[in-house]
Design a protein that fits this description.
100 residues
């Protein structure tokens, strides 16, 4: 799934080979996006950054993550492994490792 593929035509292939489209895919993307937003806010509040990281940089990191969550929800964020893994987990309940 990427910006060239309209989200309503998108199909996700799980680790078992099952092909899933909307509305199940949309619900999974929304759940992953919401989790990503929660993480962005939690990281900002926790303030577990090195001392040299400014408040402006911390805010930018959080805003970038929130924008990424919006792209995930719309189905236009490039499907790298980490995103595929989270969507797959949401759809199947199985967390597939990078290496066997």
């Amino acid at each position: 799934m990427n910006s060239e593929a309209a989200p309503w035509n998108a199909v996700f292939t799980t680790h078992t080979g099952e092909r899933i489209g909307y509305p199940r895919l949309g619900a999974a993307l929304l759940s992953v996006a919401n989790t990503w937003k929660e993480l962005a806010k939690a990281v900002r509040v926790e303030n577990a950054y090195a001392d040299h990281v400014t408040d402006q940089e911390k805010e930018k990191i959080m805003l970038d993550m929130l924008e990424q969550a919006d792209r995930i929800c719309m189905g236009v964020e490039p499907m790298g492994f980490w995103l595929w893994q989270r969507v797959n987990l949401e759809l199947t309940g199985k967390c597939v490792g990078f290496l066997p």
